[in-house]
Amino acid sequence: MSKLFERLYKNYLGNTGNSVKVRPIYKFLFKHAEENGWFNKDYNVQEEYLEYYPKWIESSESCSVKGLDTFPYRFVSLGVTQTLDWFHLECARNGWRMRLLRGEYPYNRDVFDFDEFIDDEPLAKGDAVIISVPFSASGDLHPRYEEIMETCTKLDIPVMIDCAWFGTCYDLHWSLEYDCIKVVAFSTTKGLQTGNWRSGICFSKWNHGSLAVQTEWHHGIHMNTYVSLLLMKQFSPDYTPNLYRESQKEVCKYFGLQPSKTIHIATGDDQWDYFSRDDAYNRINLRFPLFDHLNGDFYKKLDT
Fold first, then answer.
1. What are phi and psi of 202, to 5 degrees?
2. Is the domain of 167 the same as that of 139?
3. Is residue 82 part of a domain?
4. Among 36-50, 137-151, 264-278, where is mean pLDDT lowest?
5. What percentage of residues in the chain have a pLDDT greater than 70?
6. Chosen domain end from 195, 211, 234
């Protein structure tokens, strides 16, 4: 490994899923706080939040998600993670074997018993599946998405779809119109920079468990949902991808990477195996070089 690559690996490129910073979002929030203050009103906007969030998703001119209207219940979720935890609990309660694809978000197997990758052993009745869209290891729709949804519908396998990266992706189109999909979750953490005020929404065909009860009781994350609602009304799901799309193209060209349909994610060939995800993808996070490229500091950073 060259010293340049070693330095890039350690200091500049990353293997996390964290998104690139968006200065206009922070400036908007700071200005709002200066003009309105905080802690001086009732922040329980739960009903408006749950009503507005699907409209925000559907407002994207670049991405489309079919089938949100097939889920009768909507719950507030602390990012996508709280919904993942609920689905893990349902797996435990029902004795389902949780199944993942190679390269999937590792949180799932770090916090819950995990058996075999779907890639290595066929799905079977009694399994449960979690799959991210965009897919965690590629930033694109997984090529087996439709096949897996059809198999899960046929075998009555419950599925959760993790859409945590919606708001950072472009030119992506997928359907939720499968009977097997029981739970779908979105988050504002990546697309709207709410890592410090994490909130999300869960679309569900189940009306039980902690998310249902907490939503019914308005026992929620009121400041977080207030901030996210404020930002959804100001910034579209396409804002961040549109802001950084040209920078993604240029940064990937410089490094010899393949840009994905998620703005802060790229994939690489064998020389990038430092970033291997389950020996299936070499996934590289671009958040630092993207930010620097947009602000004119990219080539300066590479020279230092």
1. -115, 120
2. yes
3. yes
4. 36-50
5. 95
6. 234
Q: What is the DSSP string of 194-259?
A: -TTS--EEEEES---SHHHHHHHTT-S-HHHHHHHHHHHHHS-TTHHHHHHHHHHHHHHHHHT-EE
Are the CB atoms for 225 and 45 separated by under 8 Å? yes
Dihedral pair phi/psi, residue 27, rounded to 5°: -60, -40
Last residue of one domain, picked from the residues 182, 199, 234: 234
Position 143 scores a pLDDT of 97
d(CA 231, CA 180): 32
The answer to whether residue 34 sits within a structural domain is: no
Whether 173 and 296 map to the same domain: the answer is no
| Number of domains observed in the structure of the chain | 2
**Is the full-model pTM beyond 0.85?**
yes
* Per-residue pLDDT reduced to its tens digit, 257-301: 999 999 999 999 998 988 999 999 999 999 999 999 999 888 777
Helix pair 287-294, 239-255: axis angle to 10 deg: 100
